[in-house]
Amino acid sequence: MVSGTFYDPSFAGTLAPLLKETDLYSASRHPEFMADYDLDGHAHYHSMTAYRKGVNLKQQDYLLVSPSLWKRTIGAGLHRKGIWPGNQGKWPIYSTLRNSGMAASEHPVLYVELH
Length: 115
Known about the structure:
The protein has helices at 16-19, 67-72; strands spanning 2-5, 25-26, 33-34, 61-65, 73-79, 109-114. By secondary structure, the protein is mainly β. 9% of the residues lie in helices and 23% in strands. The protein has one domain.
């Protein structure tokens, strides 16, 4: 498993060794990938770098799994309730999150569920 914030979109040439020149699979491409939809007027928008329709994030965070783990992956997702939305959009957040200083991170949690 390889994970991290790489600060480049998936089409960047700098990520080719990880994303195109290996047999690793991106958790964000799993058919059962789950993420919260944006709540504002942009929920219908699908940008080239979004995780999926309704999630308007430029992908900078990656979770890549080996072929053997991919076979065992039954679900995957993105969790961003601990991120303060600010002017970036609106998504469900924890009720106790009141400002940017209380945010857990500026990056979502990516996860895979294995069996």
